[in-house]
Amino acid sequence: MSYLLLLSIVAILAFFATWLIVKRILVAHMVQLEKEHMKARVGLVSQYVKQKNSYNRCWWCSLGRSLGPKNGKEIAKLQEQLISAGYRRDSDIGGYFFIKYMLIIASALFMAFLWSWQLVSPVWMIIVPVIFLLLPERVVIYKGQKRLGLIDAHLPDFLDMCNICMNAGLSYLVAIKRVSSELRNVHPEICYEFEYLLDQIQIGMSRTDALRQFAERNPTRDVQSLVQVLIQNEKLGSSIGEALNEFSRRMYLNREQMMEEKAAKTSAKMAVVIMPFLMLPYLILLLGEKMVILGRTF
Question: Residue 31 in 3-state DSSP?
Fold first, then answer.
């Protein structure tokens, strides 16, 4: 009896000793994770400070910002266009206005020089600066549409790679980070966007807000649907891997249907091009004999 009591006491002491050791290890691990998190946050803040300092040293960006419009709505609209095109720094707005106004002034002076030598009409002194007034905005819009198209095209592949990493045991944020580092040279546009999303979360922004800003930076249907799926899974706590797998499979199915629709329309479009080449030999065969008979009568 005393032997069993002694064993029970030893077992209880061993349990409490193991529990204290494990608790101490977990506390030390949490402290280390907190330190690493703070290091990451400090690194991102220092990077932000460097960008602000570089903006202050960019005199031509400051000059362009001072020459640009002061209306908040116009600035906000231009900033959305620049962000869609991949230019999200504050200095890019000033650089845009500086390049725009310098092109207008340079084109006006160049056309005035040509007019002074009587090489062009005075009308071109108005037409060419107006073209350069509208050209930068169209270029930014075109680059934004092209960039969003590339993000939409590469999104299914990115999600498939993330799903493979999640099936291997990684969380979806770690999977996004791993896939972004692996595909940065292949698909830089979408990898940069997801890395920016991870940086926002590391700074301290909530996942829901970071995902909403991700959708605002990339206003496409597929990205909006992806963000809704991720936010819904964040709230409900359901499996993100299954949701991403289903979402990517639905995207592939939609694209397959779109390609089939385009292939079905191709035959009708080709008929418009081929029809004149088919009608010409038919008319020659139909009217050739009549023309020969008509020629013999004369």
Answer: helix
